[in-house]
Design brief:
By secondary structure, this protein is mainly β. The chain has 5 helices and 27 strands. Strands 1, 24, 25, 26 and 27 form a 5-stranded antiparallel sheet that branches. 51% of the residues are buried.
Length: 464
Amino acid sequence: MKSSSSLLLRALILITVASADRAESQVNLLAKGTLTASSAGSYADLSGLTGTLENGVSANLLGGLGSGIAYVSSDRFLAVPDRGPNAVSYNAAIDDTASYIDRFQTIKMNLQPNTTGSGLPFTIAPTLEKTTLLSNPSALVYGSGAGLGVGSGAPSVNYVGQYFFTGRSDNFDPNQNSGDPTDARLDPESIRLANDGMSVFISDEYGPYVYQFDRFKGTRIRTFALPSKYYVSNLSPVGATEIANNTSGRTANKGLEGLAITPDGKTLATIIQAPYIQDANQGGAAANLLRILTIDITSGVMHEYAYSLTTGSGVSELLALNNHEFIVDERDGKGLGDGSKAKIKQLFKIDLTGATDVSNMDGLTAANHEVSKTLFLDIVNVLTASGFTTGTIPAKIEGMAFGPDVTVGGVTTHTIWVANDNDFLQDYGGVTNSNPNQFFVFGFKDSDLGGSVFVPQARNGYLN
């Protein structure tokens, strides 16, 4: 039986918004909100962690949570921060990283129709409900800090049976390649919920890794072994050194940035942010080539497809429109947080039906088999039309998820939610950066999909 609060929310969402009294065949901005506090305080999450990290930042800092978002149900979402507040100057020998424990946040957005007669059609007031820390039941490899001017990278809250993943860049085994699942370093970039609601899948840039975690305990329960060409062999706590000392593998800090799960819950699809080192070194069309990797969740069988950048410098997210079509978030790094003006924040629609598997192809050959794509949403255009300036649009538009349907002007409207990664550069501890965690809600109709069909993710389990 549905709770009375759920029924009330559904009734409110289905109210026709008076201020949007006509249907337009275009994607529109419906709502915007920020999240800068919780019941634990300003810029504090609900992890219960106390004290400070090596760089002096609070261990429970609420920030940067828009690297990836995933829809749960009603208007509840999951949001994942990346490796932590390394934008704070600390120690260049470890890329300014700290022993920030990786985590994801559970957020209730409190989506409501705007009945004031002015402003956007809906309002959201994000509320943090829970913080879940990510750990492993067996021991992980942490850096000793020897020769780097820092102490051990192992969190002090570790105990037998719970070893936490962290963002510190030296938490790896130098005798293994970057795909070693015993490494404690993890730089989460995307999160997706399993169809039964009991676990989440998270992709990362350090390995790159694709892990499955228990949604409620945060314990890792599965590791997907990726093709060896994704990994680098010579590891370093400094990203630039890793790039210089390797001729193949992912580019440092630009690994598996996007992750999707098909609506049937059978397949994961992930995309690298920037070309492989070996592809980039080939030049030509290969220098703009990204790889999409699909993973059958049951069997682990993988296929790879070619995606070529159009205008952006990289890709931040991948979202399943149905079981074979996806939305890709292509962007530059310009905008709020970068001290510049936003230019490229575009969502493209692609179809893997009939696409060529390029797993065994070099970059130049694979580029001849790129998937076709069409522009679905130009975020900069829509936001500036809604009153934003290019200097107030976040530089890192990264998280992306479909949300609940609403009714606008008497028409059923699907929602796509977008979040920013602010690199923890926000207003806290007496420092003013004015780049908060933001969520943007865009509305689109079936007629905006150019013949494609939106299929919501199947839900067959625990979704509270």
